[in-house]
Amino acid sequence: MNASTHSQLARELAEAIAAGRHPVGSLLPTEMALCEQHGLSRYAVRRALDQLQELGLISRRKNVGTRVEATQPATGFTQSIATVDDLAQFGAQHTRVIRGTESVIADLALAHELGCAGGSRWLRISSLRMTHAGASVPLCWTDVYVDEAFSEVADLVKASPETLISSLIEKRYGRAIARIRQDIQAIALPAALAEALQADAGTPALQIVRRYFDGADAMLEISRSIHPAQRFTFSMEMQRNRD
């Protein structure tokens, strides 16, 4: 196999486990063997195994190895995102199920919630995020608002459910994402989303709003994801400045 990213390796191993090629209770190949088989560094292989462990598919013990624990991911998901590239990998790990697209004009309430100009026009793409194809319980509901000038992206989204919309905009329109602002807030799960998310209205949920800007600081996209409690953990590591 050609050299791949750690996320591609994680996805391929997860698919192999689900297909029974690595049965529950068996050991995966060693890190060194995976490095040689997939053309990856040991660091990349460890990141891939970290992802599988976070999903509950494997366990790792010193002097024992990497043991397969389950064929399907656990409901919850932990994600560590530090860069724009890390966020792009998030899309590759999950399946998007489109629930609707429509043109909207931001009224004052929506403009305040999203941090955009009142009266601005957007294409809204609503979807459920699943851990994998065939999963029964969704990770989250996501509404993505893209500049109406990028309306053609709606067809691209349907054709590439594994790709982040921001990545599709970059490829189709040549508008590179330079920075992302992210706001995380604890909310009560809206009644309108309770059935789709298979959770009770009013129960705790995590709302993540991301705003995507290009190099000229123009906002190209806004996404709002709502995760029912215990289905998503956002992990962030901080280091002391040595200067």
TrEMBL record:
Swiss-Prot/TrEMBL keywords: DNA-binding, Transcription, Transcription regulation
PROSITE patterns in the cross-refs: HTH_GNTR
Pfam family, one: UTRA
Stored Gene3D superfamilies: Chorismate lyase-like, Winged helix-like DNA-binding domain superfamily/Winged helix DNA-binding domain
Superkingdom of source: Bacteria
Domain HTH gntR-type: 3-71
Name of the protein in its database record: GntR family transcriptional regulator
Lineage: Bacteria, Pseudomonadati, Pseudomonadota, Betaproteobacteria, Burkholderiales
